[in-house]
Design goal:
The protein is mainly α. It has 4 helices and no strands. This is Peptidoglycan binding-like domain-containing protein. It holds the Pfam family PG_binding_1. InterPro entries: Peptidoglycan-bd-like (IPR002477), PGBD-like_sf (IPR036365), PGBDSf (IPR036366).
């Protein structure tokens, strides 16, 4: 996974490997949370907020649809 790329192929509930931890860190960065790589309560709550905003199933887990929604929240200059 390259820096800035964080589209998980599966649902991440508790990161099991480095790639998943990096995906969670990238999500935390987009959510302006401390970048721990842990799927903690603050991260889950913030993900639920994004899911609600984008009318996605509100699960609090980082899945592909949520990652894509987070990408839409970032300014264009950060995506390039």
């Amino acid at each position: 996974m390259s820096p800035g790329e964080w589209m998980p192929r599966t649902v991440i509930i508790a990161p099991a490997n480095t790639a998943e931890r990096e995906a969670v860190k990238t999500a935390q960065r987009a959510l302006r949370l401390p970048e721990t790589g842990d799927m903690d309560n603050a991260t889950k709550a913030a993900l639920r907020g994004v899911q609600n905003l984008f009318k996605l199933p509100v699960t609090g887990v980082l899945d592909r649809a949520t990652a894509e929604a987070l990408d839409r929240l970032r300014p264009p200059s950060l995506r390039e």
